[in-house]
Structure formats: structure tokens, C-alpha cells
Amino acid sequence: RRLGGKRETAPPLTRCENCGAELQGHWCSQCGQPAIDYRRSFRHVVADLLNEFLNWDSKFFTSIALLILKPWRLTNEFLAGKRVRYVNPLRLYLLASILFFFAVNYGAKGIKVDASKLGPKDRADLETELKKEDLPPVAREKLEGLLRDSSPSPARSALSPTPGPAASPDAASQPTDRANEANKKYGKIGERPFVVFDDAKSTTPFERWIEARAKEKMGEGGTKMGLFISTMFSNLPYMMLCCIPLFALVLKLLYVRRHLFYIDHLIYALHIHSFFYAGVMLIVLATIGLIRFAPGAIAGWLITLLWIAFVTQIFLSIRYVYRQGWVVTFFKFFFGGFIYLLVLVLALAATFFATLVLP
């Protein structure tokens, strides 16, 4: 349905959009591409995309190479009807998303809270949590690791810094009354808990319920913060999958005068997100290699150039897919990026809240 207009029904295809041969049925007798018109009911489009995803073949390498080198060409080829040589956009996105968030979750496993500063009450809470029979194995392993790390050992005592000579009154000013009060209530800066819950500030039932959920998920003093962050990272793929239609909607509003179908924007959104995942993974791998084998200054310049090339590819993809002038594209690139950034922030806040309140 065009914006502000009536529903338009495209005539049935009589020639193959890929090679131009005359169609005698649903499949082209020359190249094998199905006679599918994507400018139709959205539920039919989703059914076709799911069918394509379940029939994965060897077209992946051609698609991923074009996606990295010229992401705009992959979108233009697909919208022009030349789809038989490339992986379906939804299948390509799902594959890139799985690899990207697998790497993110793997990196999130290294997030730990300094358990050496846990007090006796925190250790007692952790031990009580471990006694629950319905505790998931992953959560049990993390909590046991926190208890092991918090156990005093000669090695940790030997490595703990010794207090230096007392500073003279002229070297630094005396702490203020506010700082003394904070030190008295929460402890010294280096010994404070990761998260502090103030029951006195919770006035409404909703605030008290939220605080109770936060204590359950994060632990007293943030002792289970690492587990909470890992759980939230595992929910990010679902958040991003929900954000792609919103990104396509932002593009629809930015280019409303181009009279493009929403499905065209959605295909580009799938391609550019796939490029984002693949590009970030390649740059991170290149960064690890450059830091290890290249001199510091050269590695810094090369990493900077890689990120500049990454952003330039996204800008060029918008320029060549929507075919507008450089100035207009430049404006829409930054304005649309800012709007989508706000969407991502709101989606991330919703993911944080959902991770906090859901069992």
C-alpha cells in the first residue's frame, strides 16, 4: 500500500526478472529463479523469506563478499529482481546476528565483580542462593566462582598494597563533611559495594517492587552483577531483531517522497545490519592482530582507517541505494542515524527493564 494512496496489485510476471527469459510456470527454465513479486502482502513476503531461510545453499560466500565490499550493490541487485545468486536478506541477517552475538556473549563471560571485597553478609547471601534446588547450572557455577574468588588466600594478601606514608596536610585538603558521611555509610571508595540499594528512598509500592527485583537479580552490593549483565546480553539479539522494522520505518519517513514500498526499506535494513555485524567482527579481529604484531603508532592509524572505511561504507550504501544528492544524503545520514540511536537507547532500556522484571 502506498502512503496516502490505494492498494496497488502488480500484474503477474511474464518474464524472469533475473535473465529476462519467458516464464512458463513458477520457476524460470533458464536460471531457476522463482517468479515472486515481493511488492505484495507482507504476510506472503514473510512466508517466502522463511522458506528461503530453510533452504540454505552455497550462495553465502558470494553474498558475504559483496556485502562487505559493496553493500549497496547487494540491495540494488535484490530489489532489481536478480536474487538467484544471493542469500536471502533475512537468512543472511540471522547468520550474521548469530555469529556477532555469540562473540558478544563470549566476551561478556569475562565480566566479573571484584569478590575479594565481599563482606560476611554478602557471602552468606551467596551461600543461601546456592542452596536453592531450582538454581540453573550456569548461575550456580558463577556464584561458586564468586565465593572461591572471595576466599582469603596468602597470594591475595601478599599482593595487596601496603599503606604508604601519611600525606602531609599541605599535600591535599581535608575531606569534606559530605565525603565523611559517604565513607561512614558506604565505606571507603575502594571498599564500597558495586551497587547500593537505599530502602529509605523507595516510597511507592512499584519502587519497592523494582528494588526487590533488582536485589534478587543483581544481589546485595552487586554480587551477581556479572550474571545479570550476561543475561541481558543474551537478550540483545531479540532486541535488535525488533529494532530492524523500526529502522525501516525511519527510512520510510525519511524517503517518503520517493514512493518506495516498505519492503524495500526492510530489505536494505536487513542488509545494512548484516554489514554492521560482519564489519564490526572483522575490525575487532584486525584490531587484535594489529595490536599484537604491529607497532603502536602504525596500529592506531590502521585501526582508525578501518573505522573510517566502515562508516564510509554505510554512508555510500545510503547514497547509492536511494540515489539522492550528496548534500541531502549527508543530512539524512546524520539525522536518520540520530533518530535510530534514540530508538536503540529506548530499546536497550526496555531490554534492561525486561531482564530485571522477568523470571
Fold blueprint:
Layout: H1 42-53, H2 60-69, H3 71-79, H4 89-108, H5 120-130, H6 137-150, H7 154-159, H8 177-186, H9 205-218, H10 225-254, H11 262-293, H12 296-322, H13 326-357
Written overview of the protein:
This protein is mostly helical and 359 residues long. Helices cover 63% and strands 0% of the residues. It has helices spanning 42-53, 60-69, 71-79, 89-108, 120-130, 137-150, 154-159, 177-186, 205-218, 225-254, 262-293, 296-322, 326-357. It is globular and about 80 Å long.
Identify the notable features of this structure and list them briefly:
mainly alpha, disordered N terminus, 359 residues
Question: What is the makeup of the main sheet?
Answer: none
Morphology: globular
The average pLDDT score comes to 76
Proportion of helical residues? 55-70%
How much is the radius of gyration in Å?
27 Å
β-sheet strand percentage:
under 5%
Q: Please report the total strand number as a whole number.
A: 0
Which sequence of SSEs, written as H and E, runs from N to C? HHHHHHHHHHHHH
Poorly predicted spans:
1-5, 153-175, 189-194
Number of contiguous helices: 13
How far apart, in Å, are the first and last alpha carbons?
Answer: 41 Å
State the secondary-structure class. mainly alpha
